[in-house]
Structure formats: structure tokens, C-alpha cells
Design goal:
- With 333 residues, the chain is of the alpha+beta class.
- Strands 1-5-6-3-2-4 form a six-stranded antiparallel sheet. Strands 7-8-9-10 form a four-stranded antiparallel sheet, with no helix packed on it.
Length: 333
Amino acid sequence: MVDVLSQNEIDALLAALSSGEMDAEELKKEDTQKKVRAYDFKRATRFSKDHIRSLTRIHENFARFLTTYFSAQLRTFVQISVVQVEQLPYDEFIRSIPKMTILNIFEAEPLEGRMVLEVHPNVAFAMLDRMLGGGGSAPGKIGSLTEIETIIMEKIFSRALETLQEAWRTVLDIQPRLEALETNPQFMQIVSPNETIALISLSTKIGETTGMINLCIPHVVIEPIMPKLSVHHWFVSQKKTRAPEEQHMLEQRLNKAKLPIIAELGMSRISIREFLSLSVGDVIALQKPTGEGLEVKVGEKVKFIASPGTVRDKLAIQIEEIVSEGVDEIHDE
């Protein structure tokens, strides 16, 4: 990783070199020395910085969708935001969460494999309390879920996972489906302990209760679509052609658009004195010969050359030529 110096650090370095406190030759020797960095094979780096940035962008949208969903369901103040997106071994994630927590195990077709939405007990029980008519506060002592509480939790988070589909729509059309709800991390083994996962941590506040919601995505699950998480894919996807239905609708709207069309017979210049002295029967000579075609303007641009005539005793024009694209005006002087 290349270190970027601030302007103050650059000024201090130049001052040290000019005063003789530092020797430029010694700095060159340090740069030529080989630098060894320790690498832990148990913490394999599978996600690049580019992938992490894309996951952050996707799940910032997910956090906004969750905020809207929970605010509507719980009818109280809810604030959710992305705190961190990092990669770590699955075993380290399991050891970092409470022994009693809410683990929503789900799949998202067409991706193969399982993912986990872990909700801190404080947050989960505050939601439960609010759904059952309470004020939305977490109990002092958290015990195991009853059958009724489990059903309510499953319904809450099953619908919450639908917002994940909206957040991922720009990358892949996934179909999240809640598979099971667990409370003991030891009973949940979705991948091997050393498998690298992407952990998206969401800070959650419900009323006065705060806690974390963690989304665990194993690398093996999203490995087939990793190229779609690159910045290059995001720029290319923005240039995709419109869907046929959208293009057809756009064409229909364009066909109904009204544009002014003017067939210009010619031009002439007269003085104000001549204009004021005009009377019935006077003839104004135009600068265009009678044998030349008329310029037909669409808006302000010449698009056709036509010849004048009549149709059923009405003035009309007949298109004789289409002006080449890029030619704005035709002048005859």
C-alpha cells in the first residue's frame, strides 16, 4: 500500500533535507531494501478494496431500505447505517457475536449457499416488544424465544430480507428466502471455520435502544459474481441499452411530440419608409429565384428542401430532398 503524505509532512521533509537533518542518499538505500510483510493464511484476503467499496455502496442502500421498512412496521424512530465492511474468517465472526442472539439463516437464489443476518438481542427484543404493543425497550434479562415470539421474529425478518433484493438489483436479481431462525451460534455452521466472509456491520437504533445488525456473506457464495462487483462493471452496466418495453414507450411519446415546421418562401429587405407605404396590390421581390426549392425548417434547423404547389385549392409543399444530418442551415447569397 502506498502512503500518501499530507502537505505539512511534505513541507517538513523538504525542510529536513535542506537543513541537513536527513540525508537523501540514506533514504534511497532504505527504499532499495526488501520489505517483508507477515501474511496469515488463516485470514486469506479474498475481497479486493474494489469489492469492499462495491459491497459498502450496495449495503448503504440496504440500510436505507431497512430504515424505511422498520420505521413503518414498528411505528417509531428507527435509524440504521453502515458502520464497517470487512473480511475475516467465519470462525472469528462466530466467536465475536453473543452466545444468545438472533441468527436469520437465508438463501438468495440464484446464488448457491447460505448467508446469515445476525441481529443483536437488544435490537431484536426491542422490535418484538414494539410489535406486541410495548414501548420498544429491550428486557433486562434475555431468555430463549417462545414459539409465538419465534413466529413473530420470522415474519419480521423474512420481510426485511426482501429489501436486500432491492439493494442488490443493480448487480444481480436475487430472491432472498428465510430458511431458519437460530439463537445459538454453535448450532450454525454454514461454511468451514477458515472460510473468508464479508461482514457488513449495521449500527441500529430503535427509539432509545441501540445495537448491531451483522450481515455475513461467505466468499464462496458470491464468488461467481465477483466480477460484477468491480467498478468497471458498474460503469459498463450504466451504458446498457434500454429495455424493449421502455424504448417502445419512449418512441410512442416522441411520436406524439409537436414541432413547428416552416416552409420559407424567401427573404427580402425593405426600408421602414417602404414598409409604411405598402398598399394592396404591391409586390415584394424575394431574394430567392423561383426555380430554387424552399427551405423547410423544423424548429430552427433546415431539414428538407421542397417545391411549392397546391392540393385541393390549398397551399402545399412537396419534399424533394432531405438535408444531410449536421447541416444546420442553407444560405443562398
